[in-house]
Structures are given as C-alpha cells and as structure tokens.
C-alpha cells in the first residue's frame, strides 16, 4: 500500500487514488500523421527507475497531480 | 486446563502452549511427516515449528507451538498438510483496524523494549507489537538475572510510553512502511494495518538445526526450545539429554536443563575446544547419528564411537537473525562469516534492525542497541536510560557446521523437516546442475511448507554451499515473502463477509421493490429490479406482461441508478462539445439531446442524454455502470488538458430519484403527478412541481413509446413511485427495459459495445459531428483500422425458427464454416413481434444474408435484417392524446430519509460507548469557485455547505446526495479505525476529510471530540448502516 502525497490532502493510502499512467503526455492537436496520433493513444514509456506519473485522488479531493515514482523501489517524490 | 489431542483427554497449565501441554503429558509423537510418514515430535517452541502441526476447529493447520491452551481445546494431529474440516463451525469475528505511529517496534524482547522506551520517552507516538502473550522475548525463556533480579522483573518495571499490542504478529512489511500485523483475540483475529514513519525491527533470531543422520526423530529438539520448555513452562522435554552445541547457547541450555532436573549426559561441541561445564564435553566432535525404538522415537545419540542412551537431543546449531520482515521491506541481507549467518545488510525503507535481528545476541548489547535504535527512530536522545548489569559470558564464534556426512546404511539427514527434504534430495538437485537456491527450492520444495523454512532455510543454503564448494554468501537466500506466519482467509476477510463483502447500492425505491416481490439483478454494485413477477409468474411471463403494458398502456421503471452530473460554468457547452461526438453548445435551453462519448481511441465509452437547464448549466446522464468512470473522465480532461475552461461537475446521481413512465397512456399519469409537464414536447425538459414538490421532468424515451423521466429529491422517491403505480402504471424491471430498447435497435454500452466499437460501427455516424473542429476520439476515427469498411457493425438477426432464442455470445458464420463473421450481442423473446429476435456485431454482411449462429452444440440458421424491429418510423413516440385531464394525484407525498428504516436498529445497536443515529433531511449544497466562508472544504475550490442557510446562486443542491450518520461516544474512534484508513489522532486530523470508510467514500467530520458525522452517498447508506451496526455489535 503506497503512501501518496496528495498536494491538497497530504499523504493518503494508495487505495484512495486512481492511477493515471504516464504524466506529461499532451493530447496533440492539428494535422498529424497516423503514426504520431497512434503514439499518443497507444504508446507509453515503461522505464526501470524514476517515472513521472499521474494520480487522481478519487476518494478525496478529486485532484489530478503528478509524482515521480521509482518503478523498482516504489519510492515516491515530488516531480522535478 | 482440560483439552483433548486426537480425542485423548489431557490436562495442561494456564500459560501453556499446546506444544508445552503435549510435552507435559508425555506426548512424543505429534504427527507424521508429509511424504515419508515418519513420526515427528515437537522440534521448536515458537512459530518456526516445522513438525508439530495440528488442526484446531476451523483452522486447518496451526503450529502447536503457537496455540495458546484454553479449557476445552480440541486439537487433532496432521500429516504435514492442513485439512479443512467442512463441518467445523467458525464463530470467530475477525476484523481489521488502521493505526498510525511515528515509530513501530516489532518484537518485545530486550532490544524491542529498549527501543520502545527510548522512542516513547522522546515524545514519539510508538506502537510495540509482540507475538507472545507477555513481553520479554527470550527473557521469558531464560533464568538470566538483570541487576541481580530475575530478568522479567526488569521487564515488569518498565513503564512503556507506547500502545502495546501483545499476541500480535507482524506478518507483512510492505511499501512505504506499511506493516500488517495479526492480533490474536479470543473472539477472532484483528488484522492491523499499521503505517509507521520509522520501524525498529527487534524480531530476534531463530535457532537452526544441523543436517545429521536421524535428525528428525521425536526427541530431537532445538536446544533453546528445550530450555524454553524447562524455564518458561516447567516442562522437561526429556529425562536424559545430549546437547549438540555448535554455538555457546548450547551450554546455557545444558545448564538450564540440568537445573530443571534433566540428566544431561554430554555436550558435543564441534569446535576445537569446549567451555568449562559440569557435564562431559566432547570437543571437536559431532553427532553422527541417532537410535530409536520401534515407533521411531529417540532412544540414543551417537557421537563418533560414543553412544549415549538419551530421549532428548538438544541441538544448538547456531542462530539465524529473523530477517524476514527486513527482507520483505526490500532490505538486502549479507552473509556474516563471523556469525555464520545472514544478517541485515542495506536497508531499503525507513527501518532499522536492532538486537539479535542484526546478530547482537548478548542481552546487554541488545538493550544498548535498542536504546540507540529507539532514539534514532524518534530523532532525539533522552537521558537516563541505563543498560542493566548481567553476568552473561561473551559469546565465542559458532561452528559453521551445516551437515554431518552419512555413513552407508545410516538414517537420512533432513534439511527441511516440514517438507521431508533430505541432504540426498539437495544433492540430487545440485547433481542435475542446479546452482540457484531458488531453483533448488522449487525442485525439492524445501522451504515451501507452512513454516516457510524458518529452521531449515539456512541449513539448505549451508548444505548447498558444501555440495557446491561455494561460500553460503555466494549461494544466497531465497526471497522472503509475506506473510511471516500463516494468516487465515477468515482474518484477511475480517468483517467484509456475506452481506458486507461488497457494497450494495440501493435506490430510494428499494424497499418498495422488495415489498412488491421484485427479483433483483446486480448492475455493478446496484441492486436493480430485474422483473416484477405476479402470482407465480416465471421471468418470461412477467417480462411479456411488462412489455405488453409498456407498448399498449403505461408502465414505470426505477431509473434512479442512471448517473447524473450537474455541469456548470461559462464554458460548459464548449466542454461538452469536446467530450461528446455531437454538439451541445448550440442546444436550446430546455432541450435534451442524446450523445455518445468516445475514448481517445475513438471507441464508444458511454452514452446518455444531456439537457441544457440554463445558458451555463447542463445536466448529463450516464449509463448506470459507467457513472463514476464518466464523472472521473470529465474531471481528467478539465484538469489535465483544458484547465482554462470555466466548468465544474457535481454528481447528483443520489440526489434525485428517477421514475421512467413509458407507454401510450403515460401522459395520463404525468397529468396527475406533474400537471405542468403534460404538454412537454419530445426531448424537452421542465422544472415543475411533482406531487407538489420541486421536480424535473424530461421527455426522453428508451423504448420508442411516449415516455417521461420524472425526478424528485431522494426523500420523495418512494412516494412518487407509489403514486405512479397507483395511477395504473405497471412496474417493469431491467429485462423489460432491455427488450423494449432492443426492439428499437438501441445499443447498450457494454452489451453491444466492448471497447472496440465506434459510433459508426453502431450505425450512428449521424451522431458524430463533422462540423466540430475536434472532440475526444475524432482523430482516431480517421485511423486506417477504424475507417476500414470491413469492421463489425450492428445488425439485426431473425432465426428461421421464430421460437428459437439464439444464445447471446453465439458466433456467426456463413454456412456454418469459418471464418467467424461476428457474434450475437442481445437476444430476446418479443411480445410485440410475437417471436424472438437478436442484435449482433458482424462484418461484411447485409440485410437478407443467411448466416448460422453457433453456440455450444447448437446451430441456428438466421437471416440478417436491419437492427430496428419495431416502429421504424417512430410513429409511437407521442403516444395517445389525453382523454380528459385527470384530477391531480391526491395522495400524500411522504418524505422518507435514506436511513429511516434503520432507526430502530441504530438505537438497538447503540450503547453509552457508541451511539449511532441518522441526522435526517440536512440541507446541503456543493459550492465551486468562490469560498462560501462556511461549511467543509472538500478540495481545491470546492466546499460542502450544510444547514439552514440561504443558498446563493450557483450552489448545487445535494441535500439528497448524501446521508448523514452520526456516531458519538467514547468508543466512536475505536469503531472508525476498523474501517477508515486515515489517521484520526487529534494531533493530525484536521477535523474533517474525504476518505474511505469500510468500502465506500465518505466525508468524515469530527463535530466534537467524541462525535463524528459521516456523510455517505445515499445509495451506499444502507450498506454503511449495516456495516456500522455490525461494528457496534463487535465492540
Ligand atoms: Zn486529495
């Protein structure tokens, strides 16, 4: 059970949150190739190590926010 | 204390474990081994026991060394494997609880006690857990004097500034210092979820054995365990003993056994020199074998040429720090050559091992280390902590002895007693080329028993190192995984069993449905009426009658479960344009429009109607199952992609009770209950009195008939339902709703769609705006795969046999041969058509095509048709004209709060310690944007205002959305921690929070030091009421 620091509520147990996948993936706009669009829809990084990811405090303040989590140790820190 | 073992009556003493009591009664053979069926006796005195496994009541397998004796206990022996007694009655009431602390100390031995003292005195919030009934750890088993007095006097004199949980085993150490601990209580275990800032692991050490021939005989026991039985329980594990001392602790055992009246014949010490002792010491020698009687029970011990007649062989093979929790936390162990054991190496979490857990076996060293660990964990050193004096000798280096070679014809030498794994088995594994201890473990099953190899793990590694000619540190250990000791499923389930296993959501109309004998269907967590059988009708007959009423007269359904989202803000229309495939910014005020929402991948995600209530105010409905997902989806796009849009969302699903009234004579009913809505045009909405209370009426149809969705606040829902039925509407359930919509060819998200279906696939290209620059999923509709022509599309099917019901899920083929062209998604009997019909998703087919629908061994010839079976020209939409205006409904519009039915049960379950009641009819509003200066802050720019205050423009009335339950009394906190994961300590709890209670979201507000208000979604009120009553009864 991870302890996730919600910017609004402080540290709470993981099961108060929904996972939101990789952070920083902007929805592309304007004309683009099928490949570029498919990359946005389907492709995400899967690093061994630090990972920027989004969480949603669904059972709390309903805030989306980004943290950095180490995918091996599960250490969590504020994004840099 | 009287107890039975395999039906034999026996007597034990208070404080005995079952193992101690069995020894007290002279029981040598406690069970047989799992594979070889060899007799086995008690080997240890704690949770590491590999042999003495028993069944007690509903517990299929327990170590007799961990079972506290009680009067009337009935235990049965096992052959190495648990056995479930299906007839056993389990009357335990297990539950769970959440605790938070600055410092968690695991283990109440010298180091743990010292750490607790040091941390607690520095002002930290400390929890100490220990698995024994009494604190003291190894001091309980010892005759040691501290400051000249019995060591337990020192323990008793400690004033521990901590929450102390005895009989509590820390079983799992998870991420971010989350520790699960099982507290054994007479009425059932409690699973503690403990979140600690820092953890001190004072888990002690386990003694290990040596793999010598015949080392599994009943009578062979760990030396420290034989000493524990003598000192702690006053039980002699044998009359004549030999001690095999690879470590100096063997000498202490020899002295204590002698003091207890055991005739100790010799100490066999493999090291070149022994210690001075009152008995014969065979230095530089090893135990080479054992002899036994006809039953296999130990009669003698061989050491080289010497043979001793003995019924007890006490083996001090050396010590293994109990690094289980350390390893579970992610810490890396290392092999310490000096100690000949794996010890904690690098920590991974905010944790520190102390005392014997890191190889400091001396009592004074352990206490000093505990003080240091406690101070370090608390971040502050307090003066005045003194290490008591004691007369322990310094410990010499133990012998790194793992196995004694067999001679031909000798007994097998066991590495793992529980799993019957011998040195020969390990040799076979390494002989096949295995080098990894993980491979050997899986090949031989060593370490996989209920004891998880606590006494055998180091022996296996040691034997492997000898077989492979590698150092133990190179062989390494297997991974330690939770739980440290077995945890029963009953403990894990706690109170989440039976009716409380998953939340059941109910509508305001639920009791009325129950009273009418409705048969319910689970839709997500909701209970929805499936059909309303009358006079012994079966489902088919009931549905036929309900459909007939809706098509020819008037019928009514509880539609309260549809998700309802109140959307406000200057950019609300723009926002909806971006998330729906069609246009909403152009929708007229007062008009409703059906819409489809896609994921970024262009696939249908949800559908529903959206109504414009005002220029900057919309109400969106979602499918029942997707309500939460859609609500979250809207928030995701607003916050993460379009933060500049002025729009906010409020769930009002539970605020409104909704009754769908459908059928050609629906107008007649509406004229009586909501006269001002009677002239409403198709796809229009009116905010009008309903039964004299403020309501909302939408003219929306999901059946093709004249239909209205009538909304009133939750508290009036049941009154509205009863009125509508009294006016002649026939109640119908979800099955009839499905038939009616399928006859019209309306797809259901999740039934026709499965996440791979676009609106175009459903034949709904008309709903996908070509004018809008963009909307979520638009670009995906142009992807080659999405745009290709041979995708599965929604079609209708008619079986040749009009009575044949093609099974949903049936595969469609041309002429009964591959390839599969699609599958059947919906299939019903239709009263209106007088036959069966189906909807399907199929590729490359057009009306008139002949297909075969195959399911199991049944194949039905079918013909493809257009997917609209009933009234394709929508001639029935406006129903029958009003014959004459009926009188307004004259019955009472009774108001009922969501937990009203629980009032008597709340009162009955309440005690002076904890009193539970509903606070009914509390006015509530959700407020966005500007701080109202009152109420509870729920999140950024989000408040809940309650009470009799005048609402301001823009506040969303949510008085029915949540039900307020009040729990008051000195035990209120104790009830809440059994289901609420956040820290409610006054020093940290801000007074209110949105969090979880049991398995539902709540707002928890402390209104006075012992009074809490719980705001729960009204549809979850019944579940939470049951949960709280159960919690009060368990107090
Ligand atoms: Zn939050």
UniProtKB/TrEMBL annotation, chain A:
GO biological process: tetrahydrofolate metabolic process
Gene3D superfamilies attached to this UniProt entry: Folate-binding superfamily
Single GO MF annotation: sarcosine oxidase activity
Superkingdom as given in the UniProt entry: Bacteria
Name this polypeptide is given: Sarcosine oxidase subunit delta
Automatic annotation (TrEMBL), chain B:
Residue ranges of domain FAD/NAD(P)-binding in the record: 102-329
Every SoxA A3 domain range: 413-495
Database matches in Pfam families: Fer2_4 (PF13510), GCV_T (PF01571), GCV_T_C (PF08669), Pyr_redox_2 (PF07992), SO_alpha_A3 (PF17806), SoxG (PF04268)
UniProt KW keywords: Oxidoreductase
Domain GCVT N-terminal: 509-772
A GO molecular-function descriptor: oxidoreductase activity
Domain Aminomethyltransferase C-terminal: 792-871
Family the UniProt entry places it in: Belongs to the GcvT family.
Full protein name: FAD-dependent oxidoreductase
């Amino acid at each position: 059970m991870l302890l996730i620091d919600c910017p609004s509520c402080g540290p709470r147990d993981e099961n108060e949150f929904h996972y939101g996948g990789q952070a920083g993936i902007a929805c592309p706009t304007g004309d683009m190739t099928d490949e570029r669009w498919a990359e946005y829809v389907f492709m995400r990084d899967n690093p061994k190590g630090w990972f920027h990811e989004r969480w949603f405090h669904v059972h709390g303040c309903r805030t989306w926010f980004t943290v950095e989590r180490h995918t091996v140790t599960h250490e969590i820190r504020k994004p840099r | 204390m009287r107890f039975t073992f395999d039906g034999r009556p026996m007597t034990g003493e208070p404080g005995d474990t079952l193992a101690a009591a069995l020894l007290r009664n002279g029981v040598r053979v406690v069970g047989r081994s799992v594979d070889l069926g060899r007799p086995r006796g008690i080997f240890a005195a704690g949770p590491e026991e590999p042999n003495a496994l028993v069944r007690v009541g509903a517990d299929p397998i327990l170590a007799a060394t961990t079972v506290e004796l009680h009067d009337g206990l009935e235990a049965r022996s096992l052959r190495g494997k648990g056995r479930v007694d299906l007839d056993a009655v389990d009357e335990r009431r297990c539950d769970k609880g959440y605790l938070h602390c600055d410092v968690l100390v695991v283990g109440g031995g010298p180091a743990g006690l010292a750490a607790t003292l040091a941390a607690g005195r520095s002002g930290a919030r400390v929890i100490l857990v220990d698995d024994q009934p009494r604190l003291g750890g190894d001091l309980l088993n010892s005759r040691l004097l501290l400051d000249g007095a019995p060591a337990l006097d020192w323990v008793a004199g400690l004033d521990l500034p901590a929450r102390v949980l005895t009989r509590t085993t820390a079983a799992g150490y998870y991420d971010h210092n989350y520790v699960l601990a099982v507290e054994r209580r007479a009425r059932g275990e409690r699973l503690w979820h403990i979140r600690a800032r820092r953890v001190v692991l004072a888990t002690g050490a386990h003694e290990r054995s040596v793999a010598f021939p015949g080392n599994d005989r009943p009578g062979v026991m760990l030396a420290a365990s034989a000493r524990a039985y003598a000192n702690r329980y006053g039980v002699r594990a044998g009359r004549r003993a030999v001690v095999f001392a690879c470590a100096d602790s063997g000498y202490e055992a020899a002295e204590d056994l002698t003091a207890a009246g055991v005739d100790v014949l010799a100490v066999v010490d493999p090291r070149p020199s022994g210690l001075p002792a009152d008995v014969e010491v065979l230095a530089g020698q090893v135990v080479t074998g054992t002899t036994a009687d006809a039953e296999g029970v130990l009669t003698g011990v061989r050491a080289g040429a010497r043979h001793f007649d003995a019924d007890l062989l006490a083996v001090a093979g050396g010590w293994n720090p109990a690094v289980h929790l350390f390893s579970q936390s992610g810490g890396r162990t290392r092999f310490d050559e000096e100690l000949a054991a794996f010890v904690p190496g690098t920590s991974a979490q905010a944790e520190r091992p102390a005392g014997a857990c890191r190889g400091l076996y001396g009592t004074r060293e352990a206490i000093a280390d505990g003080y240091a660990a406690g101070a370090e964990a608390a971040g502050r050193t307090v003066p005045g902590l003194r290490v008591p004096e004691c007369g322990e000798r310094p410990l010499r280096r133990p012998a790194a002895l793992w196995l004694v070679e067999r001679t031909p014809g000798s007994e097998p030498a066991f590495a793992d007693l529980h799993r019957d794994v011998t040195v020969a088995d390990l040799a076979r594994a390494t002989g096949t080329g295995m080098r990894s201890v993980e491979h050997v473990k899986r090949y031989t099953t060593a370490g996989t028993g209920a004891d998880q190899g606590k006494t055998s793990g180091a022996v296996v590694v040691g034997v492997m190192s000898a077989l492979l000619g590698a150092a133990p540190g190179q062989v390494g250990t297997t991974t330690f995984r939770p739980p440290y000791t077995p945890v029963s499923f009953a403990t894990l389930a706690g109170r989440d069993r039976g009716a409380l296993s998953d939340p059941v959501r109910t509508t305001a109309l639920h009791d009325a449905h129950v009273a009418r004998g409705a048969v319910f269907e689970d839709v997500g967590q909701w209970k929805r009426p499936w059909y309303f059988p009358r006079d012994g009708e079966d489902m088919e007959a009931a549905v036929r009658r309900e459909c007939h009423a809706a098509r020819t007269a008037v019928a009514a359904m509880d539609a309260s479960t549809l998700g309802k989202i109140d959307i406000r803000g200057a950019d609300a229309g723009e926002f909806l344009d971006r998330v729906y495939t069609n246009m909403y910014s152009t929708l007229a005020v007062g008009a409703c429009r059906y819409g489809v929402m896609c994921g970024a991948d262009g696939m249908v995600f949800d559908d529903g109607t959206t109504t414009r209530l005002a220029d900057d105010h919309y109400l969106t409905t979602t499918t029942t199952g997707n309500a939460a997902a859609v609500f979250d989806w809207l928030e995701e796009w607003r916050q993460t992609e379009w933060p500049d849009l002025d729009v906010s969302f409020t769930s009002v699903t539970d605020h409104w009770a909704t009754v769908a009234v459908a059928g050609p004579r629906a107008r007649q009913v509406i004229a009586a209950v909501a006269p001002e809505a009677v002239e409403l045009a198709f796809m229009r909405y009116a905010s009008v009195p309903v039964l004299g209370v403020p309501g909302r009426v939408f003219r929306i149809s999901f059946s093709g008939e004249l239909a209205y969705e009538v909304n009133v606040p939750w508290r009036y829902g049941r009154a509205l339902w009863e009125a509508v039925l009294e006016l002649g509407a026939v109640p119908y359930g979800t099955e009839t709703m499905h038939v009616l919509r399928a006859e019209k060819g309306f797809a259901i998200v999740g039934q026709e769609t499965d996440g791979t279906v676009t609106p175009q696939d459903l034949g709904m290209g008309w709903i996908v705006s070509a004018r809008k620059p963009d909307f979520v999923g638009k670009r995906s509709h142009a992807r080659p795969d999405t745009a290709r022509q041979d995708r599965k599309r929604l079609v209708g099917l008619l079986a040749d046999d009009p009575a044949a019901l093609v099974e949903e899920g049936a595969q469609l083929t041309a002429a009964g041969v591959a390839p599969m062209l699609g599958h059947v998604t919906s299939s019903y009997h239709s009263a209106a058509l007088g036959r069966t019909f189906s909807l399907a998703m199929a590729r490359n087919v057009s009306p008139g095509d002949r297909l075969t629908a195959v399911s199991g061994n049944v194949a039905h010839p079918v013909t493809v048709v257009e997917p609209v079976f009933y009234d394709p020209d929508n001639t029935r939409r406006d129903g029958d004209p009003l014959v004459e205006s009926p009188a307004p409904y004259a019955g009472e519009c009774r108001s009922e709060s969501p937990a009203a039915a629980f009032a008597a049960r709340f009162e009955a379950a309440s005690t002076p310690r904890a009193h539970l009641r509903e606070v009914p009819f509390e006015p509530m509003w959700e407020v966005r944007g500007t701080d109202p200066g009152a109420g509870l802050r729920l999140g950024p720019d989000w408040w809940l205002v309650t009470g009799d205050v005048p609402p301001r423009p823009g506040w969303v009335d949510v008085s029915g959305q949540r039900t307020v339950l009040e729990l008051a009394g000195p035990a209120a906190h104790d009830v809440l921690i059994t289901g609420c994961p956040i820290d409610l300590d006054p020093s940290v709890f801000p007074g209110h929070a949105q969090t979880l209670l049991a398995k539902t979201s709540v707002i928890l507000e402390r209104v006075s030091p012992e009074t809490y208000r719980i705001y729960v979604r009204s549809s979850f009120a019944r579940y939470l009421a049951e949960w709280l009553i159960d919690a009060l009864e368990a107090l």
